[in-house]
Amino acid sequence: MPGYLTKQESVPIAGVDNLLIRSLLDRQQFSDPLGVAERLGISSATWPLFGLLWPSGAQLAARMALRPLCKDERVLEIGCGLGLASLVCHRRGVDVTASDCHPLANPFLLENLRLNALPPMKYRTGQWGSTPLVAQREHPHNAPLLASAVQGQFDLIMGSDVLYERDVRATLASFIDRHAGAGAQIWIVDPNRGNRSAFNKQMAAHGFEVTEERLDHPVRGDLPAYKGRLLVYQRKP
């Protein structure tokens, strides 16, 4: 990846074979000669975060490794970053679409598919912070991103550590509501962020009930300790 220092490692995921993952070397990796970050409103501090391995992503990947396969089920990962959970699903034969708003997420995903000898996987741009019309009017250079935006509805929408900032306009809950099919489940792995309660209320406004499962565990062999929970949302009958 020109302008970036990267590393490659074998990532253990409980229940499946390790994945070879290429990621950014650290949080200092930032290169934006064409001004893409500025046009998208992504600061130099947050720009590299998509390309790092996060504990909650590994937790979600482990859950998807053990989840029973459902025929004809369509799965969407939101804020996928390096897409560990999507890669696990794809290797298991699940119809999964990875999505993120970062313009480098797809190139890294393509490289990680190659490293693991996996066939092509669906990827779409998933942006819930602004409406497409507003984004296109204010940032016309974003037109290629908007043309490849998430389309349709899904049976399972999953994400990890996506509640990292306040969302006073409830854009994430609205995005999920728009793309959740009838009877869909929403799985969010959250490392006990402070925005969970507000998000639960926003989802409730769209008719979703939540159940929470604690995922806390100590160090397990090569797996580090973790504190967080799995949030499962489903519409009220």
Verbal overview:
- The protein has helices spanning 36-40, 55-66, 84-91, 105-115, 132-138, 143-147, 171-179, 196-204; strands at 6-13, 16-24, 74-77, 95-100, 122-125, 154-160, 180-190, 208-214, 229-235.
- The chain is 28% helix and 27% strand.
- The chain starts with 5 loop residues before the first strand and ends with a strand.
- By secondary structure, it is an alpha/beta fold.
- The chain has a seven-stranded mixed beta sheet, sandwiched between helices. Strands 1-2 form a two-stranded antiparallel sheet.
- The chain contains eight helices and nine strands.
Fold blueprint:
Layout: E1 6-13, E2 16-24, H1 36-40, H2 55-66, E3 74-77, H3 84-91, E4 95-100, H4 105-115, E5 122-125, H5 132-138, H6 143-147, E6 154-160, H7 171-179, E7 180-190, H8 196-204, E8 208-214, E9 229-235
Parallel strand pairs: 3-4, 3-6, 4-5, 6-7
Antiparallel strand pairs: 1-2, 7-9, 8-9
C-alpha-based Rg, rounded: 17 Å
The number of helices is 8
The tally of beta strands, per DSSP, is 9
Query: How would you spell out the order of helices and strands?
Result: EEHHEHEHEHHEHEHEE
Please state the overall shape, judged from the principal axes of the Cα atoms.
globular
With strands numbered from the N-terminus, the spatial order across the biggest sheet is 5-4-3-6-7-9-8
What fraction strand? 25-35%
Mean pLDDT, to the nearest integer, reads 90
Please give the share of residues in helix. 25-40%
End-to-end Cα distance, whole Å, is 48 Å
